[in-house]
Structures are given as C-alpha cells and as structure tokens.
Design a protein that fits this description.
This protein has 64 residues and is an alpha+beta fold. The chain has one domain (2-60). Helices cover 41% and strands 39% of the residues. It contains one helix and four strands, in the order E-E-E-E-H. It has one helix at residues 35-60; strands spanning 2-8, 11-16, 19-24, 27-32. Strands 1-2-3-4 form a four-stranded antiparallel β-sheet, with helices on one face. The radius of gyration is 15 Å and the shape is elongated. 11% of the residues are buried.
Length: 64
C-alpha cells in the first residue's frame, strides 16, 4: 500500500492495487477508484459534517 496524501482534510489516502482508500482514525472511510472520486467523497463528507455542526451550534445558542 502506497501513501498518496498524509493529511488530506484529516484523512490519509493510500493506494492499494487499483483502489484508493481514505483512512481516518485507523478506519477505512472510503474505498474507491479513481482517486478523484475518493477526494470528492471526502470533500462532500466534510461539507455535510461542517454544515450539520454549524446548524447544531446555531440551534443551541440562546436567542436574544
């Protein structure tokens, strides 16, 4: 397995034969080919996670 990115938005990207694997906290989160699909999946995952966290923080803040 060859490391492609050591830290791409918090993920390690490895190439194993013809499959790219995105690993976070020692768990494979995405395994796809080509590389662009893995990177797009990570970007989408981060965007959804950030928007969910932002919506949660906004709804829990006291309103004046």
């Amino acid at each position: 397995m060859k490391t492609i990115y050591e830290n791409y938005r918090g993920f390690k990207i490895h190439k194993d034969d013809s499959t790219y694997k995105a690993i976070q906290a020692d768990q494979i989160m995405f395994a796809q080919s080509p590389l662009s699909e893995v990177l797009d999946s990570i970007d989408h995952y981060i965007d959804v996670t950030e928007s969910t966290n932002t919506a949660h923080l906004t709804s829990t803040l006291p309103q004046n």
